Amino acid sequence: MKQSVKRLAKQWLLPVPNALRKNQLKPDPAGLAHIEHAIRTHYHQDWRSEAHYSPEKYQEDLQAHLSERLENDRRLIVPWLNKAKPLRGQRILEIGCGTGSSTVALAEQGAQVTGIDIDQGALKVARERAAVYGISAEFQSINANQLLKTFGTNRFDSIIFFASLEHMTLTERLASLRDAWRMLQPGGLLVIIETPNRLWFFDSHTSRLPFFNWLPDKLAFRYSQFSPRENFRELYRQYTPESAEHFLRRGRGMSFHELEIAIGPVQKLKVVSSISSFLGMRYRLKQSAIDREYKALLGKIYPDIHPGFFDDHLYLILAKN
Predict the structure, then answer these.
(1) Cα separation, 190 vs 319, whole angstroms
(2) pLDDT tens track for 153-196
(3) All residues at 6 or more sequence positions from 140 whose CB lies less than 8 Å from its CB, including other chains
(4) Mean pLDDT score across all residues of the chain
(5) In angstroms, what is the C-alpha Rg of the chain?
(6) Under 8 Å between Cβ of 154 and 187
């Protein structure tokens, strides 16, 4: 019942324009079963295996990768991106394609998508999903700090960091942002999607703890034992180089500071859109009074910065001048 109400609310608040809806592809039940098998076989392995979840939480994660992420991308991300610049015919580099839900959402609208990820299991699922949906996309297993070396310049109209910057080390994050900006021609778009904002007071992405993203990495590692999230709090007890990297790749917040280091002062960047400016009142409806007050406070502290840098998650479209 609760899921049905949430689904109806999304349909009302985030209607998909008919021009986009008509392009959405729908696999048959056998195709969905094939994707589910690929997720179970290739993605839900090792620390992500079913044994590390309660039955309810495992089903939540399975359904998210099977269909819910694609539905969310179709309702929220695709209309937002398409309004900034029509997706049809765009050459897009998708950094962090994961299991391919977002790739399908972009490609079915006529974009030419190259998806990269360092997760081999996720890429196997992405390739299987693309085949089931009948979309043409290129997938490569490379680290985002190899962008310029791998692709060169002027190949893409948009470069999208799709829920990926938070899973990088700081060195990777700075290098990939710097190189992505260099790769774009004037007028090209750099897009950041679903990256938790380090400045925000609550970490809803990784730990589900207040102030977690404010903590230094090593302290956050140790403090993770207090997280309410299963398959997280129990994993990071002994601090080693391997466990420290695994912890960072689970997701740490980022803020405008990385963009200033990698690209330049954010006051001079052309922000085409943020998700909050795109949604307007619909965004405010989902915020609590504390959320609105806190964002307003950040805006008073940094009055010359686009308000999209003060949302709980960074959803930004930047145009290169």
Answers:
(1) 6
(2) 999 999 999 999 999 999 999 999 999 999 999 999 999 999 99
(3) 114, 115, 116, 150
(4) 95
(5) 19
(6) no
Report whether CATH 3.10.450 matches the domain 73-114+137-319. no
In the structure encoding, which two tokens stand for residue 17, read together?
Answer: 């324009």
**Beta carbons within 8 Å of 58's beta carbon, 6+ residues apart:** 44, 50
Contact yes or no for 148/183 (Cβ under 8 A): yes
Structure confidence by residue, pLDDT tens digits, 56-68: 999 999 999 999 9
**Whole-angstrom Cα distance, residue 282 to residue 280?**
5
What is the domain partition of the chain in residue ranges?
Answer: 73-114+137-319
Return the closest-CA partner of residue 193 out of 83, 80, 299. 80
Instruction: Report the predicted TM-score, pTM, of the whole model to 2 decimal places.
Output: 0.94
Specify the 3-state DSSP secondary structure of 29. helix
CB-based contact 78:110 (threshold 8 Å): no
Q: Is the dihedral of CA 125, 128, 132, 137 positive or negative?
A: positive
User: Do the beta carbons of residue 307 and residue 283 sit within 8 Å?
Assistant: no
- Give which of 220, 210, 287, 274 is closest to 248, Cα–Cα: 220
Given a contact cutoff of 8 angstroms between Cβ atoms, the answer to whether 191 and 161 are in contact is yes
The pLDDT value recorded for residue 219 is 98
What is the percent of the chain with per-residue pLDDT over 70, rounded to a whole number?
97
- Collapsed DSSP state (helix, strand, coil) of residue 319: strand
pLDDT tens digit string along 65-82?
A: 999 999 999 999 999 999
In this prediction, residue 13 carries a pLDDT of 79
* SS3 category, 44: coil
- How many other C-beta atoms can be found within 10 angstroms of the C-beta atom of residue 64? 16
Q: Is 203 left (phi over 0), alpha (psi -120 to 50) or beta?
A: beta
Three-state DSSP state, 115:
strand
Instruction: Dig out the tokens for 244 from the structure.
Output: 């420290």
pLDDT-based confidence at 28, cuts 50/70/90? very high
